[in-house]
Amino acid sequence: MSVQKKHGGELSEEEFRKFTLYTTQSNNLEDDSSRAKILGFTNERVRIAPGAIVRIGENQIGSRSYVGLYSYVNGDVSIGENVLIGPHASIVASNHLYSTEDDYFSDRSSLELGKVVIEDGVWLTSGVVITPGVTVGRCSLVCANSVVTNDVKPYAIVGGTPAVPLGEIDRKTGKYSWFKKEK
């Protein structure tokens, strides 16, 4: 059954025009907050940007958190309070498994082992990928286009593919300390 039929029938041309504008050009506090409520996220000041797909079952997104433009969040994902998820991020809590019997990828992996936890205060910048089973620690920063395959410690700065520690954030001063690069 199509989504249109399930939720009340076909859209008129004018309704579809408004819907298209709303879902692609309305990246502002009011519309992002409304979008979050329509999708069932009830905590205070949760915002979902246009184009974001958030399918996390009964899980809620923590208060004052933001899911950026065209991001994809799927599966058993827990998002804390004051989390910023930049545009085009991907957070997925399960994988497909290769089936030797069928000779293709089919069944999903263990949803328990795939759970993703994004703790309070995290900033996932643009294009970040969080893989199944990862916990991103409190107030950590994941640099643009990084692929996180292991847990991230609280107040860490990580980046790269796969993401590695690049520095840390001082909890008392807020200053970033960058680890020295070996030459």
Please give a structural write-up.
The chain has 183 residues and is an alpha/beta fold. It has a single domain (11-171), classed as UDP N-Acetylglucosamine Acyltransferase, domain 1 (3 Solenoid). It is built from four helices and 18 strands. It has helices at 3-6, 13-25, 29-38, 111-114; strands at 47-48, 53-55, 66-67, 72-74, 77-79, 84-85, 90-92, 96-99, 104-108, 116-118, 123-124, 129-130, 135-136, 141-142, 147-148, 156-159, 164-169, 176-178. Strand 8 and strand 9 (104-108) form a beta hairpin.
Secondary structure elements and their pairing?
Layout: H1 3-6, H2 13-25, H3 29-38, E1 47-48, E2 53-55, E3 66-67, E4 72-74, E5 77-79, E6 84-85, E7 90-92, E8 96-99, E9 104-108, H4 111-114, E10 116-118, E11 123-124, E12 129-130, E13 135-136, E14 141-142, E15 147-148, E16 156-159, E17 164-169, E18 176-178
Parallel strand pairs: 1-3, 2-4, 3-6, 4-7, 5-10, 6-11, 7-12, 10-13, 11-14, 12-15, 14-16
Antiparallel strand pairs: 8-9, 16-17, 17-18
